[in-house]
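Known limitations

Files may contain more than one protein. Parsers should not assume a single record per file. Below, a two-record file is shown to illustrate correct handling: read the sequence, read the token line, then continue until end of file.
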Amino acid sequence: MNQRKIGLRTLFCIRFRAIPVLTALCLIIFIGFTARWMVLNHPYQYVYFNILAGKHPDKSFDTDYWGVARNNLVQKLFQTIEDEQVNVTLVLYIKWGMKLINVQDAFLKYPGAKDDTIQGVSFEIKQGEIFGFLGPSGAGKSTLQKILTGVLREYRGNVRVFDAEVKYRTNAYYENIGVDFEFPNFYGKFTALENLKYFASLYAAKQADPMPLLARVGLSSDANKKVSGYSKGMKTRLGFVRCLLHDPELLFLDEPTSGLDPANARILKDMILEEKSKGKTVILTTHNMRDAEELCDRVAFIVDGRIKAIDAPAALRRSGADTRVEYSVIMKGTETRHICLLSKLGAAAEFRSALDAGTLKSIHSKEETLEDVFIALTGRRLL
């Protein structure tokens, strides 16, 4: 009888203790299959996993995969697990349509200033988006960029990038961002290639070979030339190459086509769009409305430290005044020009008469430009 009780008690203990193990095992299997399904069915989501390997207990391995083809993504994910071998704890977070940047009610006042330079700014930027900041000089664009890049941390409100508050950023933050300044600083006595190699050495991740990038922007023949002999346009292109070397997930570009001729500007804009196609996120600060319309998914109008409007360029243009139509007619051998709103063109007596009489010489629409909308909404020009 006692042996039977002991046997039952042992069996009960084994089963009882096995329940958490089986539950954990089922949970791991469920998470694994769910993660695999998400990866296979959402090829452009943000996959972030943190591997703590037994052989490196004091080190965190952070690897970001953005916009990678789904087969490569699965291969890289499981290859990373195999490379770390056994005794690996895997924490997997999968997000798609992620809010890469989330700014809520941000204020910033420079020491000694009377008023806030940034006044209650709020916006969100999704992964894979090209987002433009447009505004006149002194509007707060550069200050906002310095906040987002972690240079100015004495702000009020919430500024989260990569789902972390920027004011608490560490040096590892800069492994994931690339910054291209309007007036980039280089070591003038170094050649372009020496400058790039030096800056590449500041990052932990493996850097791209700079020569293909230099060739792409037309600087391969000047790679061994001292930067002190570079023109402004050459420095602009070199600065753009520098911000791409460590393959960052988030790019901050300040007037990237400033000082460039149309051909070189076209090359840089094509490269920016290529980065977007890889799933990268781009923050563009510019005065160039054409660049903003061509490149940006959305733009924000900034004036006096406040955001006046945020939307897609086409939507902002549609929100403006009615399209104007300009037409010219020949009357008694003299050409006269007329302007009216498109919505009222059919009722315009001069237009109908000229159309019936065959004296209409020309007609074309004058749609609202992004700059027209900016002026209408803010009362300011982009100077």
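...continuing to the second record:
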Amino acid sequence: MKAIIELVAIQEQPLSDAEQDISPEQRDAIEATERAKTERLSLERLGLKPGTVLTFTKDPTITCTVAGPKTVLFKGVEGSVSANLPEPAMHPTGRLMAKSENPFRWFDSSPAVIQLVVMLYVRYPLSLRNVEDLAFERGIDVCHETVRKWVNRLGPMFAAKIRKRRVHAMRQHTHWRWHLDEVYVRVQGEMRYLWRAVDHEGEVLESFVTKTRDKAAALKFMKKLMKRHGCAKAITTDGLRSYKAAMKELNVADRQEVGRWANNRAENSHQPFRRRERVMLRFRRMKTLQQFVSTHAAFHNHFNQERNLVSREIYRERRSAALAECKPSRPKPRRPCPHRANWRQVLVGLTAPS
């Protein structure tokens, strides 16, 4: 049995002078004709089982062993090499597509515009229509529903990048003190609880939304907090008994501190969220509340430069650095798709034993 197997071993070659003069439409037509001449066969369609040895028709010294439904092992004089045969990504039109890691590839607007709009909505207590008006003054014409879509879809991604950088930097230092507190949040007329943990400098470490504030909720919140940040030398809480029961189960009850004004750091951390909540006219779902508090906390930590503790020059430098970090990085250039003329697909003739 002889078969032509299309390997995903694709190498880029420069275009010749004759090919550069051809228009893209003519080039696509020529490639479509060439693709139609060769039928793509996979290992599964050929019925080759793992362990089957294939030999090259032109060079019998090189053998190819089927290691799996999508994996082959080439063995020759210079050694052996393993090749992966993934299924190619197909466009609805039938063309092969190259995978891209750019999250903005489906948006017509530039990444800088999208990130500016998301930052305006999350960082400042503005409504969707306020952001729409501010963007229009800067020459950006977007609808308030577009702002909502961008915030819901890309806001958590921006916040995750900020959180990842800050958590990595904070792990290199010892946590002195944590402040834990919970606050009521009304969702569709029902009371929910927002648990919040901040460090001794006011950095919001974790935000968690639950329906109750019993021992199980406190234990779940503290496990999530310790998994990401480790444990602090001292943990300040209010008089809620759920904290004591959860910390006793985690064997950190000796680090708990309770005082009348000792937890003001956590109480003050709720103020930016409360201002934002009033502008948003509260929340309708717990999922939306959890998503927004996580995004809002990451942006708040990033732009909180403690302006009351440093001079004006230092504050300007830190503010400029924070804005520079928030600017979208230039995405990697998307590699040409395999159906373009400057990509050559390597077709190998293999012969299987009869």
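Parsers that stop after the first record will miss the second one. For reference, the second record is described as follows. The longest helix spans residues 144-170.
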